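Hey, I'm writing a tutorial for new members on how sequence and structure tokens pair up, and I'd like a real worked example in the thread rather than a made-up one. If someone can provide the structure for the chain below, I'll link this post from the tutorial.
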Amino acid sequence: MDEHKEVERTERKSDSSKVASTFIKYAAYLIIFFGILWFIISYLIPMIRG
């Protein structure tokens, strides 16, 4: 009798370009967030206080 065994292989690839693009995306989010925070602290809060 022929036994047919199916072997499933999973490869874990570290795609450096995907990691880099994700890092750049989140770094841009952080820069935008801190830019908005700086704008609020520098301009809006002094305008509210008078």
